[in-house]
TrEMBL record:
This is Aminomethyltransferase. It comes from Lentithecium fluviatile CBS 122367. Keywords: Aminotransferase, Mitochondrion, Transferase, Transit peptide. The keyword Electron transport does not apply. The keyword Transit peptide applies. The glycine cleavage system is composed of four proteins: P, T, L and H.
Amino acid sequence: MASKRAAILLRPASSGLKASSTALRHPSSSHISVRNLSIQAARPRKPTGPLQQSIRYASSKAKSEELGQTGLYELHSKYGAKFVPFGGYSMPVQYSDLGIVDSHNWTREKASLFDVGHMVQHFFSGPGAEAFLQRITPSSLSSLAEYTSTLSTLLHRETGGIVDDTVIARLPGKFYVVTNAGCREKDLAYLTEELAAWKKDNPEQTVDWKVLDGQGLVALQGPLAAKILERVLEEKPAADLKSLYFGGSTLATIKGTETEVLVSRGGYTGEDGFEISIPAFATEAVAQFLLDSAPDELRLAGLGARDTLRLEAGMCLYGHDLDDSTTPVEAALSWIIGKDRRANGGFYGDSVILQQLKKKSEGGGVTRRRVGFIVEGAPAREGAEVVNEAGEKIGNITSGCPSPTVKKNIAMGYIKDGMHKSGTEIQVVVRGKRRKATVAKMPFVPSKYYKAPTTK
């Protein structure tokens, strides 16, 4: 029944994710080329038809009447969502059927579906796309195979500070890039400026940039995620999931429909799972179809569970654990800097970042490092100070919560270099009182990513 209904709802068009297609030029999308930078950069527009999304804002502090809505807003309402402002959108924090802790545990035990359609999806293509992205990020994109992805960061030109964290995937003839909703205005201004500079420096290496406004994005996360997805995909892509490892992507079609989606294995919870990019017209129908296909295994989950899950997984939230003043080395993200980039540089902030990667005896290193903490007593929240026995400030907490899985108070933050080793005892000031705490390794909960077998 669900499959038949989805077929009726979804048949109008394919996703247009193939390299040769232009079907993703949704009416509210922006198509920006360095050949013509006079085109306005990807600003939210008022809806002009049934497929348009509400006006979008980057700041979560926007007035309630200005908040945008993803393509799943009505579905969230149907399932009893409690909404909060986040990244300029009205987003579900939890649902009527499960509290935040119960939703967190459900994800760890079964599977949950998260709406991440507030994130900004981009395509970069053209002869200069790879070189342009390698200029503004520290990633080795030249060695990135088709249908694979990497976590990366957009960098400030002089300081190497993080403009935003991002995921970059290579598709045939283009790069698929996802950035944060809360950084939308800043990122669009940054990319517009950098594309203009690129055009001036490299007039022959053109770059085309499309912002996929209205494109849906959901995250299917949990130990049953693959089983659920296999049931709703056409036979060949479903079989291919067995060889789709963490960081890999594939184009797939929902059973009984002509709706093509981009399936990427990964996520923000530490569990096995997938992020699924869906054409705007089909986002709600695909999400409902997934839910109907596994009523005893899959439930919607909101921002509350997403935050506790990502903290247990040791993952950063931009604007809290990362900001413009933080470099990848300070943020314990040195692993995103490719070997060839370490040898040759050529990316923004390379003089700062490459120096930080050097040994202290060579004048390298950093003054602070991102680490995890286990805190006794009351949980430590963002802004709490980390101090030594003498009461001297040596760091600060950027995220913290009681862990539903570990059953302890966990936190993430920055601490003075030299005090960052796991097991180091420190104190955290919570509500004016010092609480005993210990520097801890992250992730707090072992990751369960589906990775390719290692060869000896």
